[in-house]
Hints:
Blueprint: H1 18-45, H2 50-62, H3 71-94, H4 116-120, H5 124-142, H6 150-159, H7 171-187, H8 192-207, H9 219-246, H10 252-266, H11 274-308, E1 314-317, E2 324-329, H12 333-343, E3 348-352, H13 363-366, E4 371-374, H14 382-387, E5 392-395, H15 405-408, E6 411-414, E7 423-425, H16 431-439, E8 476-479, H17 483-487, H18 490-498, E9 504-510, H19 519-527, E10 532-536, E11 560-562, H20 569-582, E12 592-597, H21 601-612, E13 619-621, H22 630-640, E14 643-644, H23 650-658
Parallel strand pairs: 2-3, 2-5, 3-4, 5-6, 6-7, 9-10, 9-12, 10-11, 12-13, 13-14
Antiparallel strand pairs: 1-8
Amino acid sequence: MPPSISSTPCCPCAPVAAEVAGLQDLLMxxxxxxxxxxxxxxxxxxxxxxxxxxxxxxxxxxxxxxxNFDDARFQGYISQSVRLHKRLADAVKAAGHPLPxxxxxxxxxxxxxxxxxxxxxxxxxxxxxxxxDVHRYLAFLSSPGGATDPNELLAxxxxxEVAGLQDLLMxxxxxxxxxxxxxxxxxxxxxxxxxxxxxxxxxxxxxxxNFDDARATSPSLCAxxxxxxxxxxxxxxxxxxxxxxxxxxxxDSxxxDVHRYLAFLSSPGGATDPNELLAxxxxxxxxxxxxxxxxxxxMLSEAHSSTFGALTPTEVSLMPRPGKAILVTGHDMHxxxxxxxxxxxxxxxxxxxxxxxxxHGYPGLKKFKHLAGHYGGAWYQQKMDFAGFxxxxxxxxxxxxxxxxxxxxxxxxTNETGLANVKHVAxxxxxxxxxxxxxxxxxxxxxxxRQPTVSSSGGRGALSTPAAQxxxxxxxxxxxFGHQAVLGVADQVISALKEGKLRxxxxxxxxxxxxxxxxxxxxxxxxLPKDTMLLTMGCAKFRLNNQExxxxxxxxxxxxxxxxxxxDSYSALVVATELxxxxxxxxxxxxxxxxxxxxxxxxxxxxLSLLHLGIKNIRLGPALPAFLTPEAVNILVDKFALKPAxxxxxxxxxxxxxxxx
Length: 661
């Protein structure tokens, strides 16, 4: 199973429960089997199943970082995956085609679990074998046959297919499985709860694996590195495609690609040489994911603009007003639209949180007079934000953190999001949310904040100077600079570049997080020369939008352009491409630098899209992905000049970017 998407916990103060992490991995394993069959059904039998297509998107979406922590929901997803697999298999057989044969053993899977195609159709007997094998392997780790020589130990471990498990399994699990193995083989005793717990705990531990340099060169690990890059990219594009699907926009080629990629992860073409796996099979497939994600981001952009109108620059209040209130966080504009319709005329104001801020730029949303403003900052500060909000809270997508008890009864999840012991809205009927908002006090003279509610940390942090620690308390911010709006003033941007009034354009966007190294982005914004422009998107904007940037001197062009959500990276690419056309060059030759902040799988999908387009010299921070081996990093550096952001020296990074380095 893949390692953690980040080398840091997915949320402050609340590590993911091992059971949920294991269920997420098991769901992805099942989805690989389902998509392998769906890919076969499409390419061999000409069979397409719309429910399977949509389910794979949304089930993948549910496994993204900080989307769903409800183990019961994942058990339901797994059961549905197995049910859909059987239905699709029956359809293939009914059409007169044999079911696909299982490919030969691949580096991705232990023989005990088998191929995902087999797992989805496994009987209880097969699962029993899995449990027995796991116990046997863990018992071996406690008593490796008396071997004392390191080489003998390694050879023995490889022989029983437990290479790599030794560093991953907790010591207590070794003891538990030693006893379970003894109980099975000596007393004939089997404990289903022990079986399930050990399996899930192993899944969870594998998710957070660390690899040493010696093992990083093995064919299996090289293969897995490429697989993780592909897998995380697929998860990200599935999230974007699910949003587009919710607005009625679908592209059959996207479903076909998703099935093909997940099938590839189950059967990587038989490649075994590490260089082939990384440089040829792995990277090529990952870049193909980037190409598909470009299609998806364009589709989502068109879905938003055709439904709600094109983004337009809009000033948004950060000060609440008296009245009952609902806070909407996440990314889903469709859900916000439905809530606005259902709350109209009911005396309830609606506020956006986190990456819902750009909603105020859509004409079809800002026409609702009770869309009152924006409250709070980036996702990782939501415990502070939500604890101070006197109304109901609706979570539409990631990121969500385990709630504090003081507001647990006020929060609701919907779509793929989920929290244990939190009410879930299974459709777009928000009666319960509205009812709770009317029960709560809302904003009034006793709890009205005296200063703006945005909780951005900006440049404050480990890198800050005393002057930088004085927060700018804006009462309004401006969002909505989508590519249509920016291209509307493209002639002014081109003139400013040609006349030397605008010397450089920076794209600083992506994910925010709690790590102190992310103060780099706010500090970078503070140091930008006055003759530069900054395009931002995603929750990284909260490191920047509490700063005063003003206009490019001698023009009416604002220096800070908030282009929208993370998926609106597409807008930045459209603008860059059009500028390149105007200057009869390519994007890499423009006075343009990309400094991307990443955290989760959607950011990986966007990165793969940038690499697919051949864009080079991208800075990625606060660190390069932990799941990339040195060999994989070297390939990305050699091919694309990808480099880590120098978070301890933003001033030096700024000088290098200004020099196109």
